[in-house]
Design a protein that fits this description.
By secondary structure, the protein is an alpha+beta fold. 42% of the residues lie in helices and 11% in strands. It folds into three domains: 91 residues, Integrase, DNA-binding domain (Double Stranded RNA Binding Domain, 2-Layer Sandwich), CATH 3.30.160.390; 96 residues, Tyrosine recombinase, N-terminal domain (DNA polymerase, domain 1, Orthogonal Bundle), CATH 1.10.150; 178 residues, Intergrase catalytic core (hpI Integrase, Chain A). About 3% of the residues have low confidence.
Length: 403
């Protein structure tokens, strides 16, 4: 779905019919029936009633200027500034009010994505929104003006997939709700949102929720044997997998690991925020075993730690390596193995969660902002010692295990 914020100048010029036509968020164009002259209008809702404010003739005011002025008025209105305090309302005939062309659902979806997608973390999330709205909502109500959409339209979108694709249906319903909520806030639609859970929950059958399946994990007791088998393979993918295990990180973090993130002198791996699931920078203390996996380049190192034959190592490389040794196990499950080991060793929840780069929820997480880096150093070394058979106990960590 291509994203745009408003009609183009060419699209505006092509409008010939008399009446009031949507052009951009809160911006409309009125074409007079008697002589075809055009003028810009700003629309907002005050005390539940639509108010129209003139922004000048289309002949004197360019589309870009009218759109900018409408944006300023809309932002001010959202912040509590009543535009009627500084502008004079324009009377609109009831028939023009009823005939005012609201943007279609597709146009609202495009505008919503244009304003919100830049703040989202990755392209996969954006693509998910575009795909569900285009594939499911688009055929049913994409061309319908947003102020004409009813619960019936929403039901026609989600009901056919509610039981067969419950997660897709739930996400699609939520995304429709967000788009229509945006349209209401932008003044394109009065009244309630027909896509809220309260609006449709009694019309939809109870969906069967899939049982949560956790990633299969290798038992803690098998880790020393597995690490010996991986060491014997002596391949890039086996070294990357060992690195992933020893640092308790995610697959994507290892695949994108770059020499610019490594400080060998301080024995640290600093993963930038834009590569982290949490969106926050994560610093990993490196054990001597983890560092020994690296083929240190001469001079100042640049490039990937574990490059593949065609650049970046494939996303399936580590998984295929692991499944050749432990059928049914997953790379992500190694994080669970590490967490089990932490619990067995009596390591505090705060330290274990920080090592996994998890966000501690609630008030506790709000106040505990330290990365606990120095407390995590002996833990990561002890984990490496256990995995390589160098030591099964955490004598060096006993002082911080309950920190």
């Amino acid at each position: 779905m291509a994203r745009k914020r408003s009609l183009s100048a060419r699209e505006v010029d092509s409008i010939k019919a008399s009446g009031v036509h949507w052009v951009a968020p809160s911006l409309y164009m009125k074409v007079r029936p008697e002589n075809g002259t055009r003028s810009w209008l700003f629309r907002c809702s005050i005390d539940g009633k639509n108010q129209w404010i003139g922004l000048g003739s289309c002949r004197d005011v360019k589309l870009s200027d009218a759109r900018d002025e409408a944006d300023q008025l809309r932002i001010g209105h959202r912040r509590g500034v009543n535009p009627l305090h500084t502008r004079t309302p324009v009377p609109i005939q009831p028939e023009d009010e009823r005939a005012a062309t609201a943007p279609t659902f597709r146009e609202c979806a495009e505008a919503y994505l244009a304003s919100h997608a830049p703040t989202w973390k990755n392209d996969k999330h954006i693509a998910g929104w575009e795909r569900s709205l285009a594939d499911y909502a688009g055929p049913v109500m994409g061309s319908i003006p947003v102020d004409k959409i009813t619960v019936d339209h929403v039901m026609k979108v989600v009901e056919p997939i509610w039981l067969s694709k419950p997660e897709t249906a739930r996400r699609t319903l939520s995304r429709i709700e967000h788009v229509i909520a945006w349209a209401i806030a932008a003044g394109h639609r009065p009244g309630d949102n027909p896509a809220t859970r309260d609006a449709v929950r009694y019309l939809l059958p109870k969906a069967n929720r899939k049982r949560v399946r956790h990633h299969p994990a290798v038992p803690v007791s098998e880790m020393p044997a597995l690490m010996k088998e991986l060491e014997a393979l002596n391949s890039t993918s086996s070294k990357a997998l060992q690195w992933t295990i020893l640092t308790a990180c995610r697959t994507s973090e290892t695949l994108g690991a770059d020499w610019s993130e490594i400080d060998l002198e301080k024995k640290l791996w600093t993963i930038p925020a834009d590569r982290m699931k949490t969106g926050k920078e994560h610093v990993v203390p490196l054990s001597t075993t983890a560092i020994s996996l690296l083929e240190v380049p001469t001079g100042k190192g640049t490039g990937l730690l574990f490059p593949g034959p065609k650049g970046r190592l494939g996303v399936m490389a580590m998984l295929q390596c692991l499944r050749g040794l432990r059928e049914g196990s997953t790379v992500h499950g190694m994080r669970s193995t590490f967490r089990d080991w932490c619990a067995e060793q009596g390591i505090s929840r705060e330290l274990a969660e920080r090592a996994l780069a998890h966000i501690v929820p609630g008030v506790e997480g709000a106040y505990l902002r330290s990365g606990l880096l120095e407390q995590r150093r002996p833990i990561m070394q002890a984990w490496a010692d256990y995995c390589t058979g160098a030591g099964a106990l955490m004598q060096d960590v006993s002082s911080v295990a309950s920190a």
